[in-house]
Amino acid sequence: MESKARLLGHSVHQMLVPIPIGLFVMATACDVIVMTGHGPGLGYVAFCNLFAGVGAALAAGIFGAIDFSAIPRQSRASRIGLVHGLGNLLAVALFAASVILRWNTPGHAPTTIGFALEIPAILLAGVASFLGGELVVRLGVGVDDHAHVNAPSSRAVRQHFAAKKMPP
Description:
Elements: E1 6-7, E2 10-11, H1 12-16, H2 18-35, H3 42-69, H4 76-102, H5 112-138, H6 154-164
Antiparallel strand pairs: 1-2
Helix pairs in contact: 2-3, 2-5, 3-4, 4-5
């Protein structure tokens, strides 16, 4: 099933999701270091990563919701997509709560409660990411309908359809 939100033939959701994942992993790693009493300046780095990660995750989620709306209901993909989306939404809410809790702390250092929210959030994001991979790799959601190991580049396909005046 092809993605409904594409840019140059590629799924926008799949292009965006690595950004918040990387930001959240980096933020949590920095906060682990800070909470063990090292690298106090990393608290600000983690805060910036969390803040940017929440924004990037919300952007990715919009495009994920567009793709989800095209998945046939009563399918395995729809059930997995729902759990994937809700899991990510909950993880982002936990990360956002951590941002809010540290908003006015000196150097935007993590609070104990905020850090305690990040741990289940990163674990939940990992599970939800696995489910996203299941949707793409196993169930073919967001994959070009004409994909195969010798398929032409998405740019070549777009040029082909443009020459024939047909929609891709």
